Amino acid sequence: MTADGGTAYGGVRRAEDLPGQDFWDVLYTRRSVRKFKRDPVPRELLEKVTDAAAIAPTSCNLQMWDFVVVDDEAILVEIGKLSIQVLTAPVCIFVSYGREFSEDSYANVQSASAAIQNMSLAAHALGLGTFWITQLGDREVVREMLGVPPDRELYAGLAIGWPEVLPKKAPTRRPKDHVFHWNHYAGRHIPSSPRPDDWTLADVAIYHRARVLNGNRYNKPRPWEQEAVLDALETLLGAERSGAWLEFMPFSGVLTMAIRARFTGAVLSVCDLTEGTAGFAKKRASKEGGLYLWPDELELDGTRGEGDQLPEGAFDTATCLFRLEALPREHRAPALAALQRALAPGGKLVLGFCNRRSYNTLMERARRGRLGGVEYVLAPEPHLGPFESLTVGAVEELVRDAGFRISGRSSVHALPGPTESAFRARNLHGPLALAGKLASGLSRVANSLPGVPALLGRLQFLCLEKPS
Ligand SMILES: Cc1cc2nc3c(=O)[nH]c(=O)nc-3n(C[C@H](O)[C@H](O)[C@H](O)COP(=O)(O)O)c2cc1C
C-alpha cells in the first residue's frame, strides 16, 4: 500500500523507518479495547498497521489473504446491521483467506490469525486500540457486502480506533503450570466429546476449574432464561423463602447472584466439585454461607482442596440448576443422594433441567447436526463442559430413587417467547425471518395451552421434598 522502494518487503515499510518501541512492553500491555473515541484514524497510521499484516508468516508463504480496511462510517453502519460489534470503533479491518488452500481450513485460519495478531500489536505500538471480532453475523453476507470474491473466506474483523477506555488490567490467564508442559504433556486429558459419559467427574471438574480461572468469562444467561428460573423458584418455594440455602454446582455463580438478590432472607452456601469453582461462586453467595466440596473423594493434582464436606440435614432449601445434564450418568444418583442428605427433613430441592423433548433438541440438531455439546449450549446458565438434555421420565425416576417426594412442578418455554425469537432471528432474512416472527406468535398460544409446557417446555423444574 505504501511505496518505499523495498523489494523484498513488497512496498512495506522497513523496521528502521518505524518508531522504536520496547517489544516486551508492547506485548505485555496490549489489551482488547472495546470503547473507542469517534475520532478518525489517519490512513498513514492504518498503513503501518496493515504493513504489520503483510509481513506476518503464511503457510508456504502463499499469502492468499485479502484485507479490506473500512473507515467509511456508512459502510460500517451497513455491516453493523449484521454485527453490532463492528460499530464500536471507527475502523474495522476485515481479514479473508483463500478457502481451498488447506484441508479443513487448517493453514488458512492460522495464517489469517498470524496477520491479525501482528496488526493488533502494531496498532498498540502506535497508541491505537484493537479488538478481534469473530462474531460477524452472517460472514458470507459481509463478504459479499465488501465485494470479497467467493473463493475467499472471511475470518474476522479487527476493530481499530483511539481508545476511550483502556482496560485497567488483563483478564486472568490460566496458571502457567496448568497449560505449559516441558517435553511431554503432563496434564490431564479433557475430552471434547459432547457426551457426559465420555468424561470422568475429574475431567468435568478440571474443565470447570480451568474456565473460572480464566476470570468471569462465560456466556451470560439470556435475560429471559434467568427470569424463568427466578419465577419458577418463586412459584415453587414462595417469594419469601428464607433460611439456609445450598446452591449445588453453581459454577460461575451467575444464578447464585440472581437468587441472592431476589431471595434476600436466604443465606446462600455453595457446593461445587473443586475449591476453584466453589470459591469463585462463593464470592457471589452470602458472606455467612459455607463453602462445600462434593464428592468427598474427588482429588485433583493429588489434593482435595479447601472446603468442607456437605453437612447432614443442614439446609432448608437446595437448588441444582441445569447441572445433572453435565454430570456423567453414574454420578447423577449420588449427587441427588448427597443433596437429600444435606437437606433438613421437610427441606426442598428445586431441580432445573433442560427437557430433551423440546425445541432445544431440534435447534441443537439443526445447529450442530447432533445433540448435546461442549460449551454454548443454551440453558439458563450456559453449560461449560458436556451437556445432555434429559427426559422428564428419566429425571422423575432418579429423584424417586433418591427418596424425594415430588411436591411441585413448573415448566416454561414450550416455544421461544417473543424476546427469544427476536434474538434468534436477528441475523435471519426473508422467509426465515418471517418464520421467526410466526414462531413468536405461536409461542404465546403454545405456552398457555394446558399441559403443553409440561410436555414440551424447554425448561423444567421439579420441587422435591425430603420426607419429614
Ligand atoms: C479468535 C479470537 C476471537 C475473538 N472474538 C472476539 C469477539 O467477537 N468479540 C470480542 O469482544 N472480543 C473477541 N476477542 C477478544 C478476546 O475476548 C480477548 O482477546 C481475551 O478476552 C483476552 O483479553 P486481552 O485481549 O485484553 O488480552 C477474540 C479474541 C480472539 C483471539
Structure description:
The structure is a single chain. This protein is an alpha/beta fold. It folds into 2 domains: 15-165, NADH Oxidase (3-Layer(aba) Sandwich); 206-414 and 449-465, 3-Layer(aba) Sandwich (Rossmann fold), CATH 3.40.50. 35% of the residues lie in helices and 18% in strands. It is built from 16 helices and 14 strands. It has helices at residues 23-29, 43-54, 73-80, 106-125, 139-146, 176-179, 201-213, 223-237, 254-262, 275-282, 332-342, 359-368, 392-401, 418-424, 430-448, 452-456; strands spanning 35-36, 65-70, 91-98, 129-133, 152-161, 163-165, 243-248, 266-272, 291-293, 308-309, 315-321, 343-354, 405-412, 459-465. The strands form 3 sheets. Strands 10-9-8-7-11-12-14-13 form an 8-stranded mixed β-sheet, with helices on both faces. Strand 8, helix 10 (275-282) and strand 9 (291-293) form a beta-alpha-beta unit. The radius of gyration is 26 Å and the shape is globular. The model is unreliable at 1-8 and 374-380 (pLDDT under 50). The site of flavin mononucleotide (FMN) has 12 residues, from strand 4. Residues 31-32, 34, 85, 131-135, 167, 170-171 line the site of flavin mononucleotide.
